[in-house]
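Minutes, project check-in

Agenda point 3 was the complex the collaborators sent over. CS summarized: two entities, 581 residues total, and the question is how they sit relative to each other. Sequences were read into the notes so everyone works from the same version.
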Amino acid sequence: MKRLLSKLGFYASVFVLVSPAVLVFLWMISLSFKNELDNTAFPPVFIPSPPTLANYVDVFAKNNFALYLWNSILVTGGAVLIGLAVGVPAGYGIARGKAHKFAILILVARMTPALSYLIPLFLLFQITGLVGTVTALVITHLVITIPIIVWIMIGYFENVPMELEDAARIDGATTWQAFRHVALPLARPGIVVGGILAFIFSWNNFIFSVVLGGKASRTLPSAVYNSLTFEQISWGPLAAAALLVTLPVLLLTVLAQREIVAGLSAGGLKDG
Amino acid sequence: MTSTTLPASSLAAPKQIPAGGSADFTPRYWLFSLPAVLIIAGVIVFPWLFTLYMSSQDWKIGGGPEFVGLQNFAELFRDARFIESMGHTFYFTVLAVVLPILFGTAAALVFHREFPFRGLLRTIFVMPMMATPVAVALVWTMMFHPQLGVLNYLLSLVGIGPQAWVYSPNTVIPTLILVEVWHWTPLVMLIVLGGLAGLPREPYESALIDGANAWHMFRHITLPLVWPFIMVAIVIRTIDALKAFDTIFVITQGGPGTASETLNIFLYLQAFQFYKIGYASAVVVIFFVIIIMLSLLLLYARQKSKWNA
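CS then shared the predicted structure for the full assembly.
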């Protein structure tokens, strides 16, 4: 009897823990499939009847959603690719060269609020005429992607045994070849983790695009926010847009949960 | 020149050989970091130094800079709105650290046990922290709506009257903390769960033989062993709570009035609404000093901390 009670208590606590997440996401889905009448009904309508796709059609038809989606892909894709290209070798160099001070600088960069980079970069982009361009956004998103990737790669390369590279060099390989053919393949899981986390934090970023994005260059998060401020609020399309923005990262979370957990415990700091 | 013939190593100042001292500390590895160093110098270090310079200028966008020394800082400490925003930041940060740490640790203890669908349920639990902040902030905004919001309806079902949520100066910060707790408790859970995964079995077995109950085992074995992980979570959470911007900005823009204006919101408004970039840069400098001091303090505490079992 006591066992049964403690088991019940345990499942009750699981239920309590999971339900806030379930509630918010289900409500989001529900809002996105209901017509405006149901969305502003009181008491609230929980199950859309009949469910409608009109909100999703609206999002694409009226709000330039495709353009902002493309901007988001360009900005996040560019920042992650450049981040990997320079961040992976940097992590290797820092780990092998034991450049601890540089590693701390990277950590400080992660701790600083995003807004503190924005004022000088904003002025810089104003002078160079880059305000309102996708290029400016890619450059600022490097502030997000490079520190995450470098920090995670340091940890991975420190765990790759030095002996293998030493052996390769005795066989006549250069330092670059030892990195390229020995260390790099072994650190592949780290590259995946670093890439995923950099993608998520860059994709979710809001403030850089709010300040630097023009009407044609803003990314999805700030585009959705702007549609909230400048047009009459209609809940259905807004919920549909919000759901579409966060869908890629939610799918990634479900697919790559193990990798994400590993990466967060290695360098777990959030965006911005 | 004779000096060019000297071996490079003799020119180098007495250099400390890093612990674990291998012969790997060589310049040939620096080249690997060079591209990243150049970019970081451009997009991270340059903004820091330029901000320091701007903080000494009276500079509004449209006009030119004019040197005013420390006047921006003096002005800030006379600015009631700035002082108030510091208070809001402190209030917000304390609760946005303490509550996720408590709930996250409890959640880690639950998810550490084996049970059916554990993986799936854990994925669901973790989803909020990956979701795009703007997206979830918009949905929370709709849920907080005083007349049409689903939260007030759910409360009415259990006999609780409607709440003002973000629409009253008294409840706005606790409401924002609610969102922050929802958003970031999973991160604490993951970090502590990582600590729990590495726990040894032996102390528990001997404690069982000694007839210890669950609470004793938690208090005297589990907590001391995972304390370093909880400290990591505290450090991360503190820094993140100080940086919190997206959800506050989307849900309240610092309102009603200035009731939820934190340092970050104040900073944003000064820089990009009022275009007082010299003044805003001074805020960044103060903010930076606070973050660095706090992180050092926390890192120090983390190294010193031994949980007294």
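Noted in discussion: The CA atoms of residues 126 and 209 of chain A lie 15 Å apart.
Follow-up: revisit at the next meeting once the mutant set is ready.
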